[in-house]
Write a structure and sequence with these properties.
Order of helices and strands: HHHHHHEEH
Radius of gyration: 26 Å
Shape: elongated
Number of helices: 7
Helix content: 55-70%
């Protein structure tokens, strides 16, 4: 449901899910402010306040995973930074913004009503739905697919149509087909 963590323990996988959920709700708080009634900013701030201990534990666990699996502590920190960047970037969307914002709002409500210490359960239950909301779709009136009809007229590339490195229009024509 995010970047793969090869060789991760179950606790590290759970921490990765929690961190993905936090990243998604953070991106939603920044990206979905066009619709204040979704309360994405309020939901995110409430999550930070109510689940700060679990978020801190998840941060420490996922950081420990990268330090453990890297050759050096510096390489582990670099891998963790890359993980964070890719995780946040994976939730930035334009084409699917409406669906993502609505889903993030719904999941944000689930987060703020989850008992402390059970943020990982919310992440496990709803991360697939949050990822699926990133699939772009269009409205009926304004479909997302844009088809432009382009005509490309190419000359005949037969060697007999070329004289001294130049195309001979009088011999092979202009290359345009008449309809």
């Amino acid at each position: 449901m995010g970047m793969s963590l090869p060789g991760a323990t179950p606790a590290e996988v759970r921490a990765g899910l929690v961190w993905n959920l936090r990243a998604a709700l953070n991106v939603a708080a920044l990206q979905c402010d066009f619709a204040p009634m979704l309360l994405t900013v309020d939901n995110y701030n409430a999550m930070l306040r109510d689940h700060s201990a679990e978020l801190k534990a998840s941060l420490d666990t996922i950081n420990g995973y990268f330090v453990r699996t890297a050759k050096t502590k510096a390489a582990g920190q670099t891998a963790f930074d890359r993980f964070g960047t890719r995780t946040y970037s994976a939730f930035a969307t334009v084409a699917a913004q409406y669906g993502f914002c609505q889903t993030a709002s719904k999941i944000g409500r689930e987060v703020i009503f989850a008992p402390r210490g059970q943020l990982g359960d919310v992440a496990t239950n709803y991360m697939r739905e949050l990822r699926n909301s990133l699939i772009p779709y269009g409205e009926q009136q304004f479909p997302r697919a844009f088809y432009a009809r382009t005509y490309l007229f190419l000359p005949d590339f037969q060697p007999s149509c070329w004289r001294k490195g130049r195309y001979n229009v009088s011999y092979c024509g202009s290359g345009k087909k008449k309809r």
